[in-house]
Amino acid sequence: MKQFDYVRPATVTEAVAAAAQPGAAYLAAGTNLLDLMKGGVSRPDRLVDVTHLDGLDQIETLADGSLRIGALVSNADLAHDAEFARSYPAVAEALLSGASAQLRNAATVGGNLLQRTRCAYFYDTASRCNKRAPGSGCDARDGENRSHAVLGWSESCIATHPSDFCVPLVALGAIVEIEGRGGRREIALDELHRLPGEAPERESVLEPGDLIVAVRLPPAARGFAAHARYLKVRERTSYAFAVVSAAAALRIENGRIAEARLALGGVAAKPWRARAAEDVLKGMAPTADAFQEAASHALKGAKPSGDNAFKIELARRIVLRALTLAATGTPARIPALPASPFASISGALHV
Amino acid sequence: MSELNLTSAPAHLRHGSNIGQPLTRRDGILKVTGQATYAADNHPPGMLFAVIAAASIARGRVVSLDVAAAKRHPGVVDVMTPEHKPPLAIDPEIKTNPFVFRMEALQSNEVRYANQPIAVVIAETLEAATEGAALLAPRYETLPPLVGLDAGESFVPPVVGVGNPAESYHGDVEAGLAAADKQIDATYETPPQYHNAMEPHAVVAHWDGDRLSVDMPTQGLKLSLARIAELFGIAHDKIHVRSPFLGGGFGSKGLMGGPPVLGIMAAKLVGRPVKLVLRREQMYGPVGHRAPTRQRLRLGTDTEGRLTALDHHARTVSSTFDDFYEPAAGASHTLYAAPAIRTSHDAVRVNTGTPLFMRAPGEATGSIALESAIDEMAWACGMDPLAFRLKNYAEVEPMTGRPFSSKALRACYEQGAARFGWAKRPLQPRQMRDDAGLLVGWGMGTATFPALMFQAEARAAIRRDGSGVMEIGAHDMGQGAWTALAQIAADAVGLDIDSLDFKSGTSDLPDAGIAGGSAHTATAGAAIHSAGAAVIAKLADLATSDERSPLFGAGNAGVIAREGRLIRRDDESRSESYSEILARAGVAEIEARGTGAANPAAMEQYAMHAHGAVFAEVKVDPELGQIRVSRMVGAFAAGRIINPRMVQSQLFGGMIWGLSFALHEEAITDRRTGRIMNANLGEYHLPVNADVPPLDVITVEEHDPHVNALGIKGVGEIGITGSAGAVANAVWHATGVRVRKFPIRIEELLTQL
Predict the structure, then answer these.
(1) Domain A223-328, second-level architecture
(2) Residues in chain B whose beta carbon is closer than 8 A to a beta carbon of chain A?
(3) What sequence ranges are listed for the domain FAD-binding PCMH-type (chain A) (predicted)?
(4) Phi and psi at residue A251, to the nearest 5°
(5) Which CATH number is associated with domain A5-52?
(6) Per-residue pLDDT tens over the stretch B11-60
(7) What ipTM did this prediction achieve?
(8) What are residue B244's phi and psi, to 5 degrees?
(9) Domains and their CATH numbers in chain B
(10) For residue A138, which residues of chain B lie inside 8 Å, CB to CB?
(11) B236-249 pLDDT per residue, tens
């Protein structure tokens, strides 16, 4: 493989300085980056290993009731933190529905946010890809694209963001803490990822050197714990990316939806928060009709980018189901097949 | 491989018999403790690493390679290209026998398929070789590739599979269809699939002058050795191939492909040992695959549900430069008693690596189409699918009229259906739901696979210390040859398995034939059995002709070999140990050879097939279309079972392949470039544990006096057949939606649910 420098900074400040150099990339668990490097898709000159930085692996409750998750907390540690799973069950369920146990043990919170698309044309260096080689074209547009985007895509790029974790996070209004050359700043997760437009190579608003140090769930996010689900349709029961997924969270007061949160995964270049659908549900009784209408609003503007019209109908049905499940109530335990349509099947072990 | 520390604990042997015992794998402890040495685990001193640079186009020509850039990279030792390579003794395009396939050994700049090797970079480290290969930055002259089942003019291949006619018939199919009360006409599609053995293809080649040692997983030691010998122009006895363990083969390691030859060439070029291992995506091209098919089935029945005709046509593909044709329609030859059957094949040539045998070649692809069509025909007749199959049960082989050497399929149907609870199945689809509201469906399929044999030889010996030796260059692909063949060997020489030195897995041992066609246990087992009998006969001669032996004069009565003793058959009080006989004769070791092969007279007289019945339950989300198999029962009759534990595992594995065929596996080919877009285990979906329900396997008692002396039919492939169709039929029964394109995708169900 290509030779590269390996840097292990002692502090976040050193890390930011080291990674601000052209050709540098942060390395956390490397569950995505190392594969990309082996395939020649990413060819960084310098890896800045952040796994030894202090203070980035804590899960802490702040005075205002926010939960702050360090960027180096592993997916598994977070999902299996009992207090976390109780307070944000849809997030825990999404984490456990992703990848495999081995990958979850390694993969980090910060890395999950910045994982790259699974578009086959991005991974295949012989194909044209505007994301990998800006201006080269998009071979997915007229290619094998049944799993590609139906929302927010452009002629330049029809790739999707593959994260499960980000979907409930964006629904719950998560905030990303970033350390950069100009110091500390924070943005809503919903604003972290960019839609492709004319520049699909710019996947996020991060600047060179920017390091995600934590993800914060605001106090209000706890209010949905009783009615929150993540649902993921995939082509095998485990270890597959979502064809489409949805996170639904409801705050129900006196038989009415006081507040709804809804986001979709696998449909766009970013986790897709469906605010119009959330607005429709506000003040409504949690009925099938209301959920149907919300589902229609969630997919407003969706259009196929190829052989994937079915994803629009599938997404509608998933939204409807996720809202229905959320209204029914969060299960006492995360199902053995997390986020699966087969979650109700008993006797299965965690996968 | 006597240096291997094989174990037979903890299972205990039944007195007097090794065969039939569920021994655990004798190589199991080696494997779980990491001591089993696979080919790529070998690191001879001074070894270099070779990495293949593979074509990123499917058709055209390599115009240039930046060899200088690769060579400048630190650690790179040499770059092998069509212009810079050691000569081969013969052109690798020449087919010297029907089991030789054309390979890419850098003989030209032409590119015939994506992922074709175009150069090999040899370096001090794997990393340097990998980067060197990337630095070659090939430039191509690209031609529009031929892709898909309609790529060009179709033609009827001269043969399909191995030497089978492309077209066969008995009776008048058109008349049968015309006279039918009911008919179906359905077209099914199956995708390209790749073997994806867990162990990638690998070779460690080490030249010592004109002697060559090769560590390489192979399902055919002697065929590989012969191919190496002719390609490199060296005598057989100068070559030593070691293949003690394979991490799966499934047909892709049966015949010598290009990549191991490139590794041997690289070692010759640099004069040092070289290791070459394929990357996962490089396994999608030069080492074979299962070709896609489009199959049209036309069936007719009379008013009582008896088939009047069965017409099965299969379209498939081969490469532009060689011939292998998936014999899919052959699956219709043996199962159902139609008075008129016609099977036919045609093909087109596409820019692909040559398709090859892949676990149940022909039967797997053909079975899912045939079993789906039978299900559709039963429904058209308003009959239960099992009743329909029984109504059309073949008492003799339909195409030939020959009797079966044995056929316990009726018992498979009965026992499988009883275990599954089939009798409660509603005839109509979409009638069952579980407590969670998921749609539930039940489907079945009939399994079949021919009982084949190749040719094998074995050497048996008895030593003066009373122990035995059995030598045969057999292949353990994970199926359990180290165990099952040793069991046969121990019985053959009348010893406990722990008193027998079973040597296997290297090319200097007698030829065991290939491990393929579900025939390895039968073929190698027959050779072992005959070698054992021969050495015992020699030993008996020594004893019965020596008046000092208690067995003197027992020649006519005969002796039995048991627990290291020869025992007079008509008087068990008279016996003598092997060591006593050899010691008195002053012989250190007595040896004999034996062979195993099919009996042509019996094959002429009888149709020989294993059979089975598979029952599957699936659950389908009624709105979201996601499918999951929740239960499978398979009942199989495959003659004599040598080791029930290994056999059960083989059948489990086959059933999982069937499930995978119906619901998961598909190589996605870009229709414009001919490139495979999911050449990795993340996106080429195989079932994971959560997809595989508890499986229930019944091995139905079957005695076959004709197939071979041991009565073995083989179990390596039959589990796939029947299973794929059973799952597909269960999806229909759950949903009422008949999907004829495999694997069954969510979008196919979604709009019709």
Answers:
(1) 2-Layer Sandwich (3.30)
(2) 56-57, 74, 127, 130-131, 134, 435-436, 438, 619, 621, 623-626, 628, 630, 663-664, 668-673, 675, 677-678, 682-683, 685, 687-691, 745-747, 750-751
(3) 1-222
(4) -110, 110
(5) 3.30.43.10
(6) 333 444 788 899 999 999 999 999 999 999 999 999 999 999 999 999 99
(7) 0.96
(8) -70, -30
(9) 28-36+453-597 (3.30.365.10), 404-452+604-750 (3.30.365.10)
(10) none
(11) 999 999 999 999 99
